[in-house]
Amino acid sequence: xxxxxxxxxxxxxxPFGIANLPYGxxxxxxxxxxxxxxxxIGDRVLDLGAAAEACGGTGDSPAVTEAFRSPTLNSLLALxxxxxxxxxxxxTTALSDESLRSGIEPHLHDLDDVVLHLPVEIGDYxxxxxxxxxxxxxxxxxxxxxxxxxxxWKHLPIGYHGRSGTVVVSGTDVVRPTGQRKGPKDPAxxxxxxxxxxxxxxxxxxxxxxxxxxxxxxxxxxxxxxxGVVLLNDWSARDLQAWEYVPLGPFLGKSFSTxxxxxxxxxxxxxxxxxxxxxxxxxxxxxxxxxxxxGLDVHVExxxxxxxxxxxxxxxxxxxxxxxxxxxxxNGASIRDGDLFGSGTIxxxxxxxxxxxxxxxxxxxxxxxxDDGTTRGFLEDGDTVTMTAWAPGPDGARxxxxxxxxxxRPAR
Length: 412
Ligand code: MN
Prior knowledge:
Layout: E1 23-28, E2 36-41, E3 44-47, H1 48-54, H2 62-68, H3 74-78, H4 80-96, H5 101-104, E4 108-110, E5 114-117, E6 125-128, H6 132-142, E7 159-161, E8 167-169, E9 174-175, E10 178-181, E11 190-193, E12 197-198, E13 201-207, E14 226-233, E15 236-237, H7 238-244, E16 258-260, E17 265-266, E18 274-275, E19 295-296, E20 299-304, E21 307-310, H8 321-329, E22 340-342, H9 357-360, E23 368-369, E24 375-376, E25 384-392, E26 398-409
Parallel strand pairs: 6-22, 8-16, 9-26
Antiparallel strand pairs: 1-2, 1-5, 2-3, 3-4, 6-7, 10-11, 12-15, 13-14, 13-22, 14-16, 14-17, 18-19, 20-21, 20-25, 23-24, 25-26
Helix pairs in contact: 1-2
Manganese (II) ion (MN) binds at residues 127, 200, 202, 234, 342, 344-345.
């Protein structure tokens, strides 16, 4: 695959080059309340609404021009795959056709001069559990007397419905949650701030092309509804979770905050990163979960106060996002523009690829030592966790997936 080159002064292998073009929402100091759609190129942001206006619209796609004027990505998500293709083609031309440069260039802002906002008004939020190593590790830690994997795990992508209203953009502080916990030796539950606050390094998938109640999205149709990918940190209070989750699953241990990256990487920018799944031959999955169930070769890095603590590999995930979307809708549940679902913690077989502190420290028993010599079982107040990621792009370049960061503030 050969990519066009941009008229911007940008190295060909820049992680935010012309082959990437992630979408986000930003404001500038002279209009802090005016949220605008942007595309990142290099370390700059193109104001899409202003750029389209300067060019007299986005050609034969008036709906795209209209969507570019919106304060969130939802209008673009509503256009579905054909609109996404048109939008990306227009942006690519705008940033590569020298004849358009004089009209486009005034609408580029330095990243340092903008504030990034939540890019999507989140519809429904679901979190899955798609890493076999993660599910197996959690099973061993939480249910040591049972089989590591639940009996249904290889037959369906397990998930739970989360809280969309507390999905926040990267950079938003996370207040330590308070609630009930009951350790195995406690005679009764106690109330207070969580003492086992954790992370879950995940990818999130942003959904568009809404469907009607009663219809399904097949595995083969899923790519038409998967707009793009964000980095996602599913902050988790393990002590609250362990006490509350039987039998209905995570609730207050997860719902206080979920952070996502400000940049949504289009699925179109991850064509080179498509890989086969590791394998689902034993047992075979039911027919509705078969089809073009691609994996994504995304390399994640997790830093705690600057120390690299994990390098999860998304390519090892057992379930594909296409299968997760097919499963999510197989009962006739509709999808809305702006729905978000998480992959589940990305963990691999070796310790340095585990995507949660629960696994990295084996429930606190084997603390991590950070670069400053301090140790951590779980998160302390003031700790900052930052996820970054990249995927292989065309011509040997890397596609950057932005960052997802958050700092823990004391319980209130
Ligand atoms: Mn999770």
